[in-house]
Amino acid sequence: MSKPRVAIFDFACCEGCQLQVVNLEEELLDVLSVVTPVEWREAMSEQSEEYDIAIIEGSITRPEDEERVKKIRERAKILIALGACATTGGVNKLKNNFGMDEVRTIVYGKDAAMPHLNTMPTKSVAEVVKVDYMVHGCPINNKEFTYIVRCLVMGKQPVIPNYPVCVECKMRGNVCRYEYGEICLGPVTRAGCNAPCPSAGFWCFGCRGYVDDPNVQAAREVMDKYGKTVEDLKSRLLLFGSKQEHTDE
Ligand code: SF4
Ligand code: SF4
Ligand code: SF4
């Protein structure tokens, strides 16, 4: 069986998730032994319009991005969204809390009206095209990335956790950040990272996005128990959970 051809594309992002892939070092060679990279701007100069698997890093933030990602989708048999910018819109969706004219002025000042600086409310990749698989996180967990690629090559369905970070956090024996008076998004955030943030003394800021069916009532009870409000929780949700709609209208 011929090896699947893989192309990696970047949109609006810091390219930190691709860096996580490069950081696989020796394990990257194992991954490359089962796929054929045909386009990857960060690592090679070749380009191709023929690929089986397209990996998209970054958010969709301009009308031309929408057209580009649609063309990629047409060519790819499988499309993977890589990292929070792609899976949820990530930190780029903070922009959606403002009007686009205001955003342009804040960023570009007197040049804000120049046509090449056009921008639109941020979208995740799945808000524009069908996404087959998501590698969550900001940045991604590179072990999860290799797991997903291996599954696809072997024709298996990767299993991505759909339970909250609290499960992994408790398994690591951490004292809950709420006991320190902090607000942690672990109860509503998708696990799979092995809770590195609470394990290192930080609250979870929700980079892997919400579980499919977050237990809002349980989260509310936690807030009540520790004397926090829903507004406190919402303020923490802004970083990785900003809204899809922009505020121009
Ligand atoms: S998800 Fe985070 S690390 Fe990955 S590209 Fe976006 S901002 Fe960078
Ligand atoms: S709320 Fe945060 S710190 Fe507490 S158990 Fe859940 S993930 Fe861990
Ligand atoms: S603990 Fe939360 S913020 Fe930290 S990596 Fe996991 S999902 Fe992201």
> How would you describe the shape?
globular
Bound chemical compounds? iron/sulfur cluster
> Helical region count?
10
Q: Indicate the CATH topology of the largest domain.
A: Rossmann fold
Order of helices and strands, N to C?
A: EHHEEHEHHEHHHHH
- Count of the domains: 2
Mean pLDDT: 92
Question: Helix fraction?
Answer: 25-40%
Q: Low-confidence segments, ≥5 residues, pLDDT <50? A: none
CATH architecture of the largest domain: 3-Layer(aba) Sandwich
How far apart lie the N and C ends?
A: 52 Å
Strand order of the largest sheet: 2-1-3-4-5
Q: How would you classify the helix and strand content by structural class?
A: alpha/beta
Please outline the major beta sheet.
Answer: 5 strands, parallel
Name the CATH superfamily classification of the largest domain.
NADH:ubiquinone oxidoreductase-like, 20kDa subunit
How many DSSP E strands?
A: 5
**CATH class categorisation of the largest domain:** Alpha Beta
Estimate the strand proportion: 5-15%
